Amino acid sequence: MRYVHPLAAVVAAISLLAVAAPVAGLDIQLPPDSTSLRPGVGSDLAARQCATCHSADYVTIQPPGKPLAFWKAEVEKMKKVYGAPIPDEAIDPIARYLTREYGDGK
What we know:
Order of helices and strands: HHHHH
Helix content: 40-55%
Number of strands: 0
Oligomer: single chain
Strand content: under 5%
């Protein structure tokens, strides 16, 4: 039979309790949004999809003047790399909106 130090047994028991403890009382406060997406065709769709993961601030700090290919790659990255729940059919409309409002406008 293997010897287990009593202190090790206590530490293990406390660790298990900490992991199994409910987090229902956990309250996370995020800072308020300091901006919103610019109005335009597609802004509602972009706001719904993008805001599931980040604030509009993240969009507004992207390099200005980027073309559609940049914005489409960004939206696809959000879906494929970061797991954003963006429907495939929403990728192009969101990218076009972002290009018009934050990109090169073409």
